[in-house]
Amino acid sequence: MSGLLAYAVLASLFIFAIAMGLALIRVFRGPSAQDRVLALDYLYILGMLMMLVLGIRYASDTYFEGALLIALFGFVGSFALAKFLLRGEVIE
After folding, report:
1. Which of 31, 33, 39, 69 is deepest in the core (most CB within 10 A)?
2. In this structure, what DSSP letter does residue 22 have?
3. How far apart are CA 58 and CA 47, in angstroms?
4. By three-state DSSP, how is residue 17 classified?
5. What structural domains and CATH numbers belong to the chain?
6. What number of other Cβ atoms are within 10 A of residue 72's Cβ?
7. Chain-wide mean pLDDT for the chain?
8. DSSP for residue 60
9. pTM attached to this predicted model
10. Does Transmembrane show up as a keyword for this record (predicted)?
11. What does the alpha-carbon distance between residue 23 and residue 67 come to, in Å, rounded to a whole number?
């Protein structure tokens, strides 16, 4: 890995970590349930992006598979939470 790519990976991981901290603040202090759900959605997206960057850094396919699983489960979880907030029940 070249020096520039190594610095870019470290910088992006640092920025993603800061964004995760800000999203956690929104999860705990969100004024409404919808804000909390959006913050959780943002957290899983940031987690997926961090896994992708780590996959680039370590040149491992395992990180990419983990990112795919995070994306799938995050989408299903967001859908279930949105449906619960809309109707008050997940399973009809």
Report:
1. 39
2. H
3. 16
4. helix
5. 3-87 (1.10.287)
6. 11
7. 91
8. -
9. 0.85
10. yes
11. 19
